[in-house]
Design a protein that fits this description.
The structure holds two protein chains of two kinds. Chain A is mostly helical. Helices cover 72% and strands 4% of the residues of chain A. In chain A, strand 1 and strand 2 form a beta hairpin. Chain A starts with a helix and ends in a 20-residue tail after the last helix. In chain B, helix 5 crosses helix 6. The chains are: A mainly alpha, B alpha/beta. At the A-B interface, helix 1, helix 12 and helix 13 of A face helix 3, helix 4, strand 8 and helix 19 of B.
């Protein structure tokens, strides 16, 4: 008998070898080689042979990293190809992520060399702008992580943003307190979350449908109140105080990173702390283990005495808190006033970041930063009159999500019971 | 150093129920209704401490419903549960666990992407850091290993459940219950997914648990196992206790109690008269959903007028083999020929059109559409052809007429052909599938687990239909994990193990030898043949 089974095992490995050749790393490597070639040839030939300056300050003056645009575009493209080729050739596992990041970063720089040749790009401004644009995406995606890891799909992030933004503007103005504004943003987010939770968990309505309906509800309610209340008397109802920027002495003086991370508003820190808290919460605590169990196999959780629905309520409501804070960003940080459909689809990009980040807090953070950077770059290209339409960059989050969901970069796997209501048999 | 270790081993709350005092369980007049259906009708059972109590009954007799009430997953409509003489109400499994009752479910309650230790800890986690509930992985793991060692049930705490074979998963389930210090363990159909040898191991484990003072409730419909292990047997039929028996009772008597009349488990049939080769499978290789080779070079031939039965424990590639033949799953290599025409690359619809009838193994998933009526389900294969319809529209009258006729002919017990299939019993749903698939002229009939979850009366009917199909010259391929069924129906038996046909044997071969084959153990003679 043992003879038979050994033979089977050996043949198994042998037979599966061809399909294992195109593993995730090799596919990514091949993709990097292709985009690297495009970068070197296409960006390189289009780039004018002028100096591209990446300045450390906010304007054209001061210290800067400079390179000839054409040379830079080709050089960085070649590095991308090299990184891809190394992945294709097969390297030790610990180098794979480094190479992947290197490949993507150099591709971006190749593109930038082409675009910036003859001009300048303020690095600090770009980074802090990216982080700020990513901020609501991080919070929104974290709200998604909380709900979906416990098995409740949250398509209503957009609605939670809107309610949060509206609540923050209205109450912040009336109370002339930014903190009151922040708290009512949380309340706004939780209201939508509570509706989502009750309809999805108690009444078993299709969760995607509920999410869309709640988005439309939030859009309608805030739009109506905006027109009837805020627009006629903006001073009285729609001029909330802004969240102050805090500067941590010492740390803020570190070049580049200092001004980006340590001279900023409270929400940036809060978002980054939440990423860590939720990550360790999910992986290291009893709450996290139970949350994941409920999201993967609710019946199993039930049979060991875990209250499946209770935990789902808790998580969806916590998600509402986080998304509400994300909503506050729009009125208390970004614009300083509410406007109809102020969030303009940011909730859906947050949803994309959640999926692209594979339902993990750090994945969501990375995806949100990536999307924030793309958005910031789009703004920059629009400002300098680039030949590349900035709509292309605005599409990036959606394209990246389609690529991710299609499984082109490894398997994206949602929690097994995500979106499936739990009914006791 | 050892002293310090032992301090950590003293756990407080869970061990408080003294582990060596056995538990006495009494169920009195338990009644549970689902709509009109009375699933449990005034059931009385007493389980004495340290006893292995077998709950014997057919599929659908109400055994699982009863145990789900005992485990707090369902609430009884009437009746009471007494533990050590004290009345208890179990609103959730949590209550049952704290009363000392554990359960190993028929479908394992394990999170596939968690490790063994995580699954065992879930719901009873060792934590430190107070309200934060920081998991103490080391202590969790140690608890697992301790229990595993104490009861002689080897498990690897760091293995992922999805990578474990079913036998190992079942051990994890048992360890999971035992770490909760249960004194009464319910095992719901634990042997359904095991090989005969694994079953023997499990029975030994049950015996040794009973010796340490645990009470065990063992749910099954397999008479042999009951006789081998039980101290007391309660037989349930159609939701009622029809009697208690001692293990000395003969199998025939038990079977009679279980099904309520003298049943012959044998299928009556004439010797087969095999003709030309209808289905020829050669060198077939198929992968499962995870990309693992599930069918590993299968050759088989089914001739007209014979039944080829495939025996084997579930999960040895039978599902993938059938799906590949039906065009439901791509094959990696090999050929499938129907009367010398290659079926490779054909869609399932084309395969059906070529004269193949298919009774899928999962009735509710692939066999019927529960929200459609019986009549609609009966024309799922031919709805776009005359007389039932054309490419644009359906012909309701032809569909209704045919349904009425077939409901009659196949003895489908339904209030009307216009009732939705979901309202029918399992056996009648299966008859709908059989009626549909056997109404076309067939060259080949593939029946996968044709009587799973089907009552005895319907089993007999379906078996007779299959034999009838054989007698009119159809080639029949029957796949079943019930050895009795394969032996009863087949003219030749192919034993499948790990994606291969280990041997093709006669149904007259002793059952024990087929059982060994199912466990992958070939006889010495055959082994010698293979090594040459």
């Amino acid at each position: 008998m043992s003879g038979v089974s050994t033979a089977t095992v050996e043949e198994l490995t042998e037979a599966s070898a061809p399909s294992r050749f195109w593993n995730r790393e090799r596919r990514l490597g091949a993709a990097l080689v292709i985009i690297g070639v495009i970068a070197a040839a296409f960006f390189g030939s289009l780039a004018p042979s002028e100096t591209a300056r990446f300045t450390l300050s906010e304007n054209a003056e001061g210290a800067a990293l400079s390179i000839n645009g054409q040379l830079g575009a080709i050089l960085f493209g070649v590095i991308t190809v090299a990184a891809g080729a190394a992945l294709l050739a097969g390297v030790a596992k610990r180098w794979q992520t480094t190479l992947l990041v290197l490949g993507i970063v150099t591709f971006v720089f190749s593109f930038l060399c082409w675009q910036v040749a003859g001009k300048f790009l303020p690095l600090v401004d770009t980074l802090s702008g990216s982080l700020e644009l990513a901020l609501p995406l991080i919070l929104g995606a974290l709200a998604g992580v909380l709900g979906e890891r416990s098995g409740v799909v949250n398509v209503a992030i957009e609605g939670q943003f809107l309610m949060g933004a509206f609540g923050a503007a209205l109450v912040g103005t009336l109370a002339t307190s930014v903190w009151a504004g922040l708290i009512s943003a949380v309340v706004g987010g939780v209201i939508i979350a509570a509706l989502l939770a009750v309809l999805a968990i108690r009444f078993l309505v299709d969760q995607v449908v509920v999410g869309i309906v709640l988005n439309l509800l939030a859009l309608g309610v805030t739009g109506f109140l905006y027109e009837r209340l805020m627009q006629p008397d903006a001073i009285k109802y729609n001029s909330p105080p802004r969240l102050p920027e805090w500067r941590i002495p010492g740390l803020a003086d570190i070049p580049v990173i200092g001004p980006v991370l340590f001279e900023t508003n409270l929400l940036v820190w809060l978002a980054l702390i939440l990423v860590f808290v939720i990550h360790f919460g999910l992986t290291r605590t009893r709450w996290g283990l139970r949350t994941r169990a409920v999201g993967e196999h609710p019946t199993a959780a039930d049979t060991v005495g875990i209250r499946v629905r209770g935990l789902r309520y808790l998580n969806v409501l916590m998600g509402g808190v986080v998304a509400g804070i994300g909503g506050a960003y729009f009125t208390l940080v970004a614009t300083g006033a509410f406007n109809k459909n102020l969030t303009a689809g940011a909730g859906f990009i947050a949803l994309a970041a959640l999926i692209f980040g594979r339902w993990t807090p750090f994945g969501a953070l990375g995806a949100a930063l990536f999307f924030g950077f793309a958005q910031k770059l789009a703004n920059y290209l629009g400002a300098v009159g680039s030949p590349v339409p900035n709509q292309f960059l605005n599409m990036l989050p959606y394209i990246a999500t389609i690529v991710a969901v299609a499984g082109l970069v490894g398997r994206v796997r949602a929690p097994a019971a995500d979106g499936v209501p739990y009914v006791k048999s | 150093m050892a002293g310090r270790r032992f301090q950590f081993l003293v756990r407080t709350p869970q061990r408080s129920r003294s582990q060596e005092i056995p538990l006495r369980l009494e169920l009195r007049g338990i009644t549970k209704r689902f709509g009109d259906l009375v699933a449990n009708d005034r059931i009385d059972i007493t389980v004495e401490p340290g006893e292995v109590h077998a709950l014997l009954g057919e599929n659908g007799a109400g055994k699982s419903t009863l145990m789900n009430q005992l485990y707090g997953l369902l609430q009884p409509d009437e009746g009471e549960i007494l533990v050590d003489g004290e009345k208890k109400v179990f609103r959730s499994p949590r209550d049952a666990i704290s009363a000392g009752i554990g359960m190993v479910h028929q479908h394992f309650m394990l999170v596939p992407v968690f490790t063994v230790a995580e699954n065992i800890a879930l719901g009873a986690e060792e934590v430190r850091g107070g309200p934060l509930g920081w998991l103490d992985r080391r202590r969790n793991k140690r608890d697992v290993l301790e229990t595993s060692k104490r009861y002689g049930l080897p498990v690897d705490p760091d293995a992922l459940i999805e990578n474990l074979p079913v036998g190992a998963q079942q051990r994890v389930e048992i360890v999971k219950a035992l770490t909760r210090d249960v004194d009464l363990l319910i095992l719901d159909e634990p042997t359904a997914v095991l090989t005969p040898q694994e079953t023997d191991e499990l029975l030994a484990v049950m015996r040794s648990l009973a010796e340490t003072g645990k009470s065990i409730v063992f749910i099954t419909h397999k008479l042999r196992e009951v006789k081998a292990i039980a101290d007391k047997i309660t037989v349930i039929r159609r939701g009622r206790t029809v009697g208690t028996a001692s293990p000395d009772t003969s199998e025939e008597e038990l079977a009679e109690l279980m099904v309520g009349r003298d049943v012959s488990l044998e299928v009556t049939k004439t010797p087969s008269d095999p003709g030309r080769e209808v289905l020829k499978v050669s060198g077939l290789i198929v992968e499962d959903d995870r990309g693992v080779r599930a069918v590993d070079g299968v050759d088989l031939v089914v001739r007209s007028g014979e039944v080829l039965g495939i025996a084997g424990v579930q999960g040895n590639g039978q599902t993938e083999l059938v799906e590949a033949i039906m065009g439901l799953r791509p094959s990696r290599a090999g050929t499938v020929e129907l009367e010398e025409k290659n079926l490779a690359g054909r869609t399932t619809k084309q395969v059906l059109g070529a004269g193949v009838g298919y009774v899928p193994e999962d009735r509710s998933l692939d066999g019927v559409i529960k929200d459609f009526t019986v009549a609609e389900n009966l024309v799922l294969d031919l709805y776009d052809r005359a007389p039932f319809g054309n490419r644009v529209s359906l012909n309701p009258k032809a569909i209704a007429d045919s349904a009425r006729e077939r409901v009659e002919r196949f003895d489908i017990r339904t209030s009307s052909p216009q009732s939705t299939v979901g309202t029918l019993s399992g056996g009648n749903q299966q008859k709908v599938v059989v009626a549909r698939e056997m109404s076309r002229p067939l060259k080949l009939l593939i029946a996968s687990q044709p009587t799973r979850g089907v009552d005895v009366g319907s089993i007999e009917f379906i078996h007779n239909q299959i034999i009838h199909e054989r007698d009119i010259g159809t080639a029949v391929l029957v796949v079943s994990s019930e050895l009795d069924e394969v032996v009863g129906l087949a003219d030749r038996i192919a034993v499948m193990y790990r994606g291969r046909i280990l041997a093709v044997v006669s149904p007259d071969m002793p059952r024990e030898e087929i059982g060994l084959l199912m466990a992958g153990i070939t006889s010495p003679a055959q082994e010698a043949e293979e090594s040459e």
